[in-house]
Amino acid sequence: MPTKMISAAALGAALLATTACSSVGNQATVETAASPVARPEVSTDFQYPTYRKVTLVDEAEDAFGQFSAEMAEVVDNLFAREDRPQAFIAGEEVGGAVGVGVTYGKGLLYRPNTAPVEVYWQGPSLGFDLGGDASKVFIPVYNLGPTENIFKRFPGGGGNVYFVGGVGGEAMSNGEVTVVPLRSGIGARAGVSVEYIKFTPKRDLNPF
């Protein structure tokens, strides 16, 4: 692997390790406050139940820790284009750049009436300033089917873009499943362009 690629992966790993301690409290909040079991507002019309809009807004606000009119508007736009998600992921990610950008994330995947599943994601990206940053992420998941379908690669650059105020995201699809990573208060991350993300059941330091 080229030196710059290794440096980028090492930086991302270091950032993820640095924020691990500070994110324990946040993760606990996500596991309890964002649990869909506590809110039965889901449809039961399909083989895989889906979330209603009001529930998704509540869960997104819990994940980010505050009410956001911009987030509610983004969710409105999501439902107009993507309909109801079968799952969502609430977690955190770190990114950095030394020649090339990298993104590493960790969170919990929630489905109605199902125990949450720990997931990780990583991938190369463009648009990072030199250095690194961390942010909370909320990812609605569409047409998931069996939960193991999340553990695939999702390319970006061809999906719908959602951006209102300080909330932004892009629909990323592998042709079957669609994920929409949303970030709030992204600041410098507004210019981030993720080439693809790869979800895994365990941490993988190789972003490619």
Give the helix/strand layout:
Layout: H1 3-33, E1 42-43, E2 50-51, H2 53-64, H3 69-82, E3 87-97, E4 101-111, E5 114-126, E6 131-142, E7 153-155, E8 161-164, E9 167-170, E10 172-173, E11 178-179, E12 182-184, E13 193-194, E14 196-200
Antiparallel strand pairs: 1-2, 3-4, 3-6, 4-5, 5-13, 5-14, 6-11, 6-12, 7-14, 8-9, 9-12, 10-11
Briefly summarize what is shown:
This protein has 208 residues and is of the alpha+beta class.
Give the proportion of residues in helices.
25-40%
Q: Major sheet: size, sense and barrel closure?
A: 12 strands, antiparallel
How big a fraction of the residues is strand?
Answer: 35-45%
If you compute it from the alpha carbons, what radius of gyration comes out, rounded to the nearest whole angstrom? 16 Å
Number of strands: 14
Q: What is the 3D shape?
A: globular
Order of helices and strands: HEEHHEEEEEEEEEEEE
- Average pLDDT confidence is 73
* Ends apart, CA distance between termini: 10 Å
Class by alpha and beta content = alpha+beta
Uncertain spans, ≥5 residues at pLDDT below 50? 1-40, 186-191
Tally of alpha and pi helices: 3
